[in-house]
Amino acid sequence: MIDDSLRPPFATDPDAGAYKDWLHLNVFDHRSGAVMLFNVSLHGSPYDPRARVVGTAMVHQPDTGWTGNMSVAGFDEAAIGSTSIATARIALAVDTMSERVLVSAIYPDDSLEGSIAARAASSPVAIEERLPFGSGWISWYVVPRLTVTGTLTCAGRTIELDAASAYHDHNWGRWHWGDDAGWEWGTYAAAGAGPTFVFSRTTSRDHLREGPITLFVHDGPVRRRLRGDGVRLTLEGRFTAPLRRLPGSVAALHQDRVQPHLPARVHVEARDGVDRVELEFVPRAAAQLIAADPVRSGYGFVHELVGEFTASSVIAGRARTVGGLGVFEFVD
Amino acid sequence: MSTSIIGGSRTVGCRSLREYVELLYSRLNTVDSAAAHRIRRVVGARRARITLDEESVDVYFSRGRLHVTAPGKGPVDGTGRTTRQVTLDLIDGYLEITTAVLDGRLELTGSLDAIVRMDLALEVLLDSATRAPALQQLAQDFRDDPCRAAPAPRSAGPFRRWTPFYSDPPEEREHRLLEQLDLLP
Question: What does the pLDDT look like over A108-132, one tens digit per residue?
């Protein structure tokens, strides 16, 4: 069972204005190479009319590039349940009892439409502790690997998702966009019933100060959590291809962010004396999703880099080399 | 947390360019009077002409109030000209401002000082709009305006582009140097 729910603040919460909460699903279609991002997020106090619901549905196909867009609405224009957020364009719901994550997206002006059901294929990881983040804190709940059914139509092509795998997480907390905060996060899914690798660490906004990094490995019934000095994340080179930047009106305000410093390769090496993982990710495309704080003038820049990875690992005494699709997220 | 109905019914009427410009400023003044004040200070006594497709208006401040009039015969300090499609492409993230300017799809004319001030006024407006639902609603109304053409379908992007502004492609050696200095467009 997925034991999770959105965490809205009480009206009496003095930090309600810094409230953030979102449901996220990545889908990796190993057949077509498409990488998909679905996210519905809540920003600001539910009791403040400036608070916003932001929905994002984006698909990257190797031959056509990015399809999809971001939509922004008020809380009064959305249906918000205990484990679901729905707007006119995108809805994401977690069915906790059947361990499914459901997505519906309709962006006709952006050639994207689809309906997806993902079922948990690994046990969840709950990090309920309040990790220091900017002026506040952040927590998360992760289902590293899910199987997928559904169909997506994008850029005039219909993709059947029966060969796809997925990743789901839920983050919540209190901070303001524009705080001295950032993070580095990645999820990498091998094809078929292969393993999923997930790492994450919080950072300062300039990424010079780093929190502890954790790497999760989920391979069928086997799960490992490697952390501390035994895990090393290295960002190499510079990614220079043009970015899809959303929302466009806010991107227009930030011309200095057209070519941010993003890595051309991501390398993870982890060992704890028993298990070890060496993973290399090469992004093929990137998007910049700009989060505007609804209460104060501040912006966060969420960079989504999508591409291919290879990983060599020895987990529970089993050595293997796998490849697949992944996402690296760089936030500042 | 309360649950509400998605969307709800909304009636969108036809508006002229003049009405959109007047509503932009009046709504900004209502929700963020400090930002409206900054725009007045930046613009001062200057006049600008805004052209969207076939519609044009002159805008200026007088005694702290915005005036939006039919284009006069007198000179203006700066002009901005674009189309509805380019505006929607910018809003939807299919076009960068720099690209629009370099490709002639967004024309700004005037002295350097006048252009910088037009840009500053727009920046103040865009920044405030992220915290102003009434302004975001106006953008949605513009998109849904029944008297204006629906946006052309866009399928994917971004695309590498060729800018006629740079008529001669740089030589390989020059390209490497520009790349090294992070100066490539």
Answer: 989 999 999 999 999 999 998 999 9
